Amino acid sequence: MKVRHLLGISGGKDSAALAIYLKQSHPELDMDYYTCDTGRELKETYDLVDKLQSYLGKPIELLQAVNPKTDTPFDNTFDHFLAAYGGYLPSSTSRWCTKKLKLEPFEGYIGDEPTISYVGIRGDEDREGYISKKQNVQSIFPFRKNIWSEDVNRLVLSNSNMSQFESCYLVNSKELIDRANKFLITQVSEEFTLKQKINALLDIDVKAYNRSVFEFLKTTAYPVGKLDHFPLVENDEVLKINDIFQILEDSGVGIPAYYNKREYQVEIDGEIKTGIYARSRSGCFFCFFQQKIEWVWLLENHPELYENAQKYEKEGYTWMDSENLEELKQPERVAKIKLEHYKKVQKNKTKRTSTSWQDEIVEAEGLGCASCFI
What we know:
Elements: E1 4-8, H1 13-25, E2 31-36, H2 43-56, E3 60-63, H3 77-84, H4 96-110, E4 115-118, E5 137-140, H5 150-156, H6 162-172, H7 177-184, H8 194-204, H9 206-217, H10 241-251, E6 262-268, E7 271-277, H11 292-301, H12 303-311, H13 325-328, H14 331-349, H15 357-366
Parallel strand pairs: 1-2, 1-4, 2-3, 4-5
Antiparallel strand pairs: 6-7
Helix pairs in contact: 1-2, 1-10, 6-9, 7-8, 8-9, 11-12
């Protein structure tokens, strides 16, 4: 049975680096690429998608929830659904934008064909990411030590399947069975959690664990189990933020331009200090997960987009709970946001073992949402 290999391009660094990494490391995978367009992305995001498409040598399928040319009087999909929701702006507690503009087009694009979805969550991130509810879709995480999704790990290491998984381990890694067996035959409990069991087996040998999971999945309906061979079971690399930037730079695709550092000035005790800011993620230019300093970045680097975002706000509907964009753009408020950001960055620098810009990106990601989908 044919199994489809699928990779979504968000316009951000991680999904772009994953596409490059898999093309370089596993060219045997017949990968299809797609991107979900909200119609409200930064130009820098579209530029990255174009560069990546040239590098991959394959089209990146453009998915839209509705076709602005034929299906709606609006010129973009976001405005179409904003009208459908009665002008109710999306927020962290009501992410209809993610559902309507990203997830539903993705689910519709997949159809019923067995599909492996490759997800660019890094080895230095502690999150699972979106897992499709469709039974014919399986997520794989090539950048992580543990490439399997939580549902797969829970299945293969469940107490009821302990004997079966031990047999799979014996078939694939007989030479390691003595070291692994004490963990394989220990039931998951409050004293020995699923996470502890996974980490114990991965610490013995990543490839042995991957091969054994693959063997187990052959007895299930999971798409990976339908393959005769799955090259990623031989992966034991863990890629982190510095690796991602290196992949992008070495490929010639480059990092998304919105990561480019820009300077700003603040006054502290009569002395002018220089800070740096940039955007920390892909996504719509008015994303509600943005930090205040990112709104300032938008105001100063894309004033026309800031004005556009401001037009969406009205009584009771704002992008932020604490203030609206008219209030935020006032010079005294901008100066205060820059000062707060500068002090926070300086404080964080004292906690780090390095001073790389990449570390600041990771910190910024942790304050919001690394990506609305990919």
